[in-house]
Design goal:
The protein has 369 residues and is an alpha/beta fold. It is built from ten helices and 15 strands. The protein is globular and about 70 Å long.
C-alpha cells in the first residue's frame, strides 16, 4: 500500500494543504514549528485511527475552527482506497472508508499500514506500561485488524466489571458471573497475540539495537502479566484455567479495591539490557537505539506480508542521532517502500530522497528531490 495524496482541512496548524506523494522517500523540509510533524500525524490518524501525540481527537482541530478533516488516498497494486477522518469540537466523529460511513475511528485500521519513528519514542523504553501496551496492540491490530473489536470489547467489559465492583448493590451475582466470564474469554486471545508478537520482536530488536549502536549488548523482551506468577501459559485451556485461578485468588482484593486488578489492561512488556531493566538503567543513547529497534522490528514483521508492507513515518529522527548512528540508521532503513521524513535541515539525511516538499508558514511547495 502506498499513499498517493494527503488532503488536510483545519488539522492542527494547517488551514488547508494537499500533497501528491512519491512512492519512495518523501522529505518534508522546513524549520521547527512549521507543521511537519502534523502531516505525519494526519497519515497516522487515517491509518491507525488515533494520533501518536494525543488520544483526544478534539485536540487535532485547528485553533479558531470547529472541525478537522484528514483524507488519505492510497493504492495497493493499483487498487485505490480512500480513508477519511473528521471530528468536531463536540467530539462528533465521521469516518469514511471508500465513501462508506462509520462511527468509530478504529474502523480505519487494516487498510493502510504505517510504522512511525518519533522523538517521543524514548518513552517506549523509559515510560509507563500503557505506552508499551499501546505499541503492542497497534502492531497486533495491523497484523490482524479483527483484534480491534476484541480489544474494544475487552475494554468495555472491564469498565462494566469495575463498575460492578465499585457499586455491588446495583449488580446481582448473575451479572457479575457473566462479566467475569466475558472478561476471561476476551482476555485470552489478546494475551495469545501479544505473547506471539513479543516472540517475533525479541530477536529482531536485539539485532537492530546492535546494528544501530555498534555494540554487542544483550537485549531480552518478555511479557509481564498481572497474574502473580512469572511464567504465563501460552494459550488454550491452560491459559484459561490460569486466568480463572487468578480471578478466584483476587476476589477479596478486588472487592476491597473496587476495581479490576488483573488482565491485559494492567500488563507490561519488560525490556532487559544486559539482564537489567532498560527502563531504569539504559542511557539516553541506549534507550533511543532500543526504541528505534522496536519500531523497525515492527516494520519487518508487517513487511512479511507483502500486502501489509508499511509506510514509514520518520519524524526528525536523524537529528536526534550522532553522525555514526545516522549512517547506521540510514543503512538499516528499507529502501524499497514508501516513507515520509521530517527534517529542518537537508544535511541531516545521509541519503537521497525522491521528492522534497518545502514547508513554510501555512504553505507547502514541491521542489526537486
Amino acid at each position: 500500500m502506498r499513499v498517493r495524496r494527503l488532503t488536510l482541512q483545519d488539522f492542527r496548524s494547517w488551514h488547508s494543504v494537499q500533497l501528491e506523494a512519491h512512492s519512495g522517500a518523501n522529505l518534508l523540509l522546513g524549520p521547527n514549528g512549521v507543521g511537519k510533524s502534523n502531516i505525519l500525524e494526519a497519515i497516522h490518524v487515517c491509518a491507525l485511527g488515533f494520533s501518536p501525540r494525543s488520544r483526544s481527537e478534539k485536540d487535532l482541530v485547528r485553533w479558531g475552527t470547529d472541525r478537522f478533516v484528514a483524507r488519505v488516498e492510497a493504492a495497493q497494486d493499483d487498487e485505490p482506497i480512500e480513508l477519511a477522518a473528521s471530528c468536531d469540537l463536540s467530539g462528533r466523529k465521521d469516518v469514511r472508508v471508500n465513501g462508506q460511513a462509520a462511527r468509530l475511528f478504529s474502523k480505519l485500521v487494516g487498510h493502510l499500514t504505517v510504522v512511525g519513528l518519533y522523538p517521543e519514542d524514548l518513552q517506549l523504553v523509559r515510560g509507563g506500561p500503557e505506552l508499551r501496551r499501546s505499541f503492542l496492540d497497534a502492531l497486533v491490530c495491523q497484523n490482524d485488524p479483527a483484534m480491534v473489536d476484541t480489544l474494544r470489547d475487552y475494554a468495555r467489559v472491564v469498565k462494566q466489571r469495575s463498575a460492578a465492583l465499585k457499586e455491588p448493590e446495583k449488580f446481582d451475582g448473575n451479572v457479575r458471573e457473566v462479566l467475569d466470564h466475558q472478561m476471561l474469554e476476551l482476555a485470552r486471545p489478546i494475551l495469545e497475540r501479544r505473547m506471539d508478537t513479543i516472540d517475533d520482536l525479541f530477536p529482531r530488536v536485539g539485532r537492530l539495537h546492535s546494528e544501530l549502536s555498534g555494540g554487542t549488548e544483550s537485549v531480552a523482551i518478555w511479557y509481564r502479566g498481572s497474574y502473580g506468577e512469572d511464567d504465563l501459559p501460552r494459550r488454550g485451556q491452560e491459559l484459561a484455567a490460569h486466568l480463572e485461578t487468578r480471578r478466584k485468588r483476587l476476589v477479596n482484593a478486588e472487592a476491597a479495591a473496587q476495581t479490576t486488578l488483573f488482565g491485559p489492561h494492567r500488563d507490561d512488556m519488560t525490556i532487559l539490557l544486559e539482564g537489567r531493566p532498560a527502563r531504569e538503567t539504559a542511557s539516553q543513547g541506549q534507550a533511543r537505539s532500543l526504541a528505534i529497534g522496536l519500531r523497525l522490528a515492527s516494520a519487518e514483521i508487517l513487511a512479511e506480508d507483502k500486502n501489509r508492507r508499511p509506510v514509514l513515518l520518520l519524524d526528525d529522527v536523524f537529528a536526534e542521532l550522532d553522525g555514526s548512528r545516522r549512517k547506521r540508521l540510514a543503512a538499516m532503513l528499507p529502501r524499497d517502500g514508501q516513507s515520509f521524513l521530517c527534517s529542518p535541515h537537508r544535511a541531516d539525511l545521509p541519503f537521497e530522497v525522491d521528492r522534497t516538499f518545502l514547508l513554510e508558514a501555512g504553505h507547502v511547495r514541491e521542489t526537486l528531490g
